[in-house]
Amino acid sequence: MHSNMPIVLSVLVFLGTVGVIGLALVVVAWGVARRNRLLVRRGLQVAVGVCGGYLAVLGLVSLVSREQVLPAGTEKYFCELDCHLAYQVEQVAPVASASGPERTWAVRLRTRFDETTISPSRPRDLPLSPNPRRLALIDSSGRVYPPAKDLDSLLGRMGTTSTPLSRQLRPGESYTTTLMFVLPEGAVPARLALQEDLFVDRLLIGHERSLLHQPVLLGLPG
User: Fold this and answer.
1) What is the pTM of this model?
2) Any residues with CB less than 8 A from the CB of 180 and at least 6 apart, and which?
3) What is the predicted pLDDT for the residue at 158?
4) In the chain, how long is the greatest CA-to-CA distance?
5) E strands of 14-155, at which residues?
6) Mind giving me the DSSP string for 7-24?
7) What is the dihedral of CA 74, 166, 206, 86, to 10 degrees?
8) Fewest 10 Å CB contacts: which of 21, 112, 168, 175?
9) Average pLDDT over residues 133-139
10) How far is the C-alpha of 148 from the C-alpha of 216, rounded, in Å?
11) Where does 121-188 have alpha helices with state H?
């Protein structure tokens, strides 16, 4: 099992930092109302100091991070606070298309709700709606390609369907999603970037999407 981040600890530290800064600003507001310059100064010092310290740790952790590529077939886990979802690339294959300077590739991704990771406080049969995901295919030269926009049309030509990554799961359930990427002729898919797509992720210490942090990528089966 490979977890992309210690999210619970990161969230607690973030919320604690926001709480301290919020209290400091309350002190500033109280000082302004009371015309007490000392309270205003001390409140601002705490707010700026805590904010600066948090950003310094965030940047330092990101700078020492290194890009990781998981071996083909390895599951990448995403923590949803009280449970985990696992993602695995099952297949990568070119799709027959009209001749031209580009080639379409189909990537089959499996999503699994690992029932062994459920927190004791979570109801055992409660469905989970996955957080938004962002995806990109990376070729052997390091160039990055977003998913094809005309997914429904491409799936229709293949005569197949695909389960959206946003579909709910219950513990133990899984489904597969077919993703399409258009690459230039001759480009060879090498890795898949699969990440959470929430703005707050940019501010969580140790999160692979935090500022300057290096990603954890999924290797593709040959």
Assistant:
1) 0.86
2) 95, 104, 105, 106, 107, 147, 148, 151, 154, 155
3) 72
4) 75
5) 68-70, 76-79, 84-95, 102-114, 133-139, 144-145
6) HHHHHHHHHHHHHHHHHH
7) -20
8) 168
9) 96
10) 22
11) 151-158
Cβ within 8 Å of residue 86, ≥6 positions away: 1, 75, 76, 77, 78, 111, 112, 114
At 67 the pLDDT is: 94
β-pairing, 216-219 vs 68-70, is parallel
Give the type of residue at 210.
S
Question: For residue 80, what are the contacts with CB-CB under 8 A and spacing of at least 6?
Answer: 128, 130, 131
Is 69 in contact with 221 (CB distance < 8 Å)?
no
* DSSP element (H, E) containing 196: strand 189-196
Nearest C-alpha neighbor of 190 from the set 144, 154, 138, 145 = 138
Residue in the structure block whose two tokens are 């004791």: 120
Query: Alpha-carbon distance 219 to 63, whole Å?
Result: 23
